[in-house]
Amino acid sequence: MLIADLVHSCSNDKVAQAALACIGGCFAERVRAVAHRKGVSVGRFVVVVVRDFARRADETAHEALRAKIMGDDQPLLKGLREVLESALEREPFFVNNEDSVPYPPYAVGAACDYSLRYH
Question: Is residue 108 in some structural domain?
Answer without folding.
Answer: no
